[in-house]
C-alpha cells in the first residue's frame, strides 16, 4: 500500500485535479493506518509486550545502577514472578534479561511461590559487596518500578556488634523490604556460603523463606529416604501432626499433596506432645506395593539439640538465632547428632488402619496406640 502511494505521488506531481485525489487517498490511507495502529493496540498481549519488556529491562538496569554489573559469579536474584496475579506476562521478558547476562537458572535464581495478591518483587543480591537491591513493580494501569531500596545484608556485618544488630532491627521494624527482610537475608547469605543444597533451594521456592522449620523438614525427609528408600513401588503418606514449616518439604520432595491424599495435617495439645516424648514430628506411612507391606514410622525432631549446637545465644534476635540454626542444619555432618531425629515407634499396619488414621475425628497417634484418647486435654 505504501508502495502504491509513493508511485501515485510521483506520477501526479504538478497536476492540480489529480493532486486533490492524492490528498484524498493520503487522507484515507492515514485513517486506515491510524485504525490499524489502534486495532493492534487492542490485541491483548501485543501492545503490552512492548512495555513489559521495557519494565523488565528497567528492573535489571535499576539493580545494576546500585550494584554494578549483574553477572553469574556474584548474583542471586530472588523473585516471586509468576505468582502475583497476571505477573506471568513478564516471564519471557524476565528470562530474556536473565539469560542475556549469562546467568544460570540453578546458580543465580530462586523463584518463590507467593499468593496471587502479593506484589511482584525482585531482590538482587551481590555476594561480594553484600548489597541487595529490592525492587517492587506495579503494572495495573501503567508499568513502572514502584519501590526500590538498596541495603547491605551481609550477615556477618549485621550481626557483629550490638549497634549493627540494632541498626538492622530498626530496618526490619521499618520493613525496608516490605516484610521480606528475613526471607531475603537468610536465603541470600546461605546461598553466598556456596553450601546451600539446590534441592533444599527447591523446597524454599515452595516455602518462600528459609527457616529452621523448613530445614528440619529437609533433615527428616533425608532421614526417611535413607532408612526407608523411595524405590520403585514405594510411596509415603505423611501425617504432619503437629504441623510446622517442615511439611512443605514433603509436599515438594515426595509430591505428597493434600489433594492427592499424600499429606494429612493436624495439630496436638501440649499434653499430647508431652505424652509423645516432647518433640513428635509426625507419622510417615511407608507403603511398599511390591512387598505388600505398610509401616507407620513415627519420628521426633528435637530443636533443643539444634539450639545447643548452633551457637545461638538466649538474647539473639530471631533473625540471628534462626539463621545460625539454618547454617548448622545445612551441614549434613550434623544430621546424625544424637537425639536430633528420634524414632518414637515403627509399626506394621494395614490399609484399614491407614484409613482410620485419616478420619477427621480420629487422632492418628491414638489409632496407632501411642496415645490414649483420654489424653486429649
Ligand atoms: Zn518457615
Automatic annotation (TrEMBL):
Any coiled-coil regions, as ranges: none
All copies of domain Formylmethanofuran dehydrogenase subunit E, residue ranges: 206-267
Positions of transmembrane segments: 27-47
UniProt entry keywords in alphabetical sequence: Membrane, Transmembrane, Transmembrane helix
Gene3D superfamilies to which the protein is assigned, alphabetical: 3.30.1330.130
UniProt keyword annotation of Chloroplast present: no
The keyword Transmembrane appears for this protein: yes
SUPFAM superfamilies in UniProt: FwdE-like
Descriptive protein name: Formylmethanofuran dehydrogenase subunit E domain-containing protein
